[in-house]
Design a protein that fits this description.
Elements: H1 2-8, E1 12-18, E2 24-32, E3 39-42, H2 43-46, E4 51-55, E5 61-70, E6 75-80, E7 103-108, E8 116-130, E9 137-144, E10 156-158, E11 164-171, E12 184-188, H3 189-193
Antiparallel strand pairs: 1-2, 1-4, 2-3, 3-6, 4-5, 5-6, 7-8, 7-10, 8-9, 9-12, 10-11, 11-12
Length: about 200
């Protein structure tokens, strides 16, 4: 598991949604997915921000802009204004090859605890999830039981080979509280990556 972490952690960034006064309105996670330094994250983390800041694995910070968004999948693609001299794009895996019971590994920033590792198993495939406070649902999701909490959204779900198979989008908690209850969901990476095939509005 440490090898998996070592492979994916350098690709994980912290995403900070900033208010006009410079304070942090929301914080989440993201993953670098290409040589341009483009980042996939959850749209709900960034969509209402006045500005965006990303923090790379080496501590480098950069302003970032949304270059594409796919609302129906809760996915946004960000482009940082500057990138570190060295950064590591993640490797994509094949979500179609997943089976229930496979390893589910999340590296994200829950409660701003940067690049935290949590592990579990794939609990279900092709799930649908009602979006809180919105009249729509996300479909085709991967369900898993690795711990995710506020701040985990946008982080990568990876397989045991350290390949990204999904982007964490949310969790379901029967108490209605945004805290871990063992049911997390991720958008498949092929769905998420399609955001970069869409030109910005």
């Amino acid at each position: 598991m440490s090898e998996v972490y070592a492979k994916v952690a350098p690709s994980v960034v912290q995403v900070k949604a900033m208010r006009a006064d410079g304070t942090v309105a929301d914080s989440g996670s993201g993953v670098i997915i290409d040589d341009a330094g483009d980042i996939l994250t959850s749209l709900h983390v960034v969509q209402n921000a006045n500005s965006l800041m990303v923090v790379f694995a080496d501590g480098t910070q950069s302003q970032a802009a949304i270059i594409a968004e796919v609302a129906e999948s809760d996915i946004a693609a960000l482009r940082p204004a500057t990138t570190p001299l060295q950064f590591v794009p993640a490797t994509f895996g094949n979500p179609s090859a997943l089976h229930i019971g496979d390893d589910a590994i999340v590296v994200a920033n829950p409660f701003a605890l940067t690049r935290s590792l949590s592990t579990g198993v794939i609990s279900g495939l092709d799930r649908s999830l009602q979006v809180p406070n919105q009249d729509r649902s996300l479909t085709g999701l991967i369900q898993f039981d690795a711990a995710v909490n506020p701040g985990s959204s946008g982080g990568p779900l990876v397989n045991r080979d350290g390949e990204v198979v999904g982007i964490v989008t949310g969790l379901v908690n029967p108490t209605g509280q945004p805290a871990f209850s063992g049911v997390g969901f991720a958008v498949t990476i092929d769905t998420a990556a399609s955001a970069l095939g869409v030109p910005p509005d």
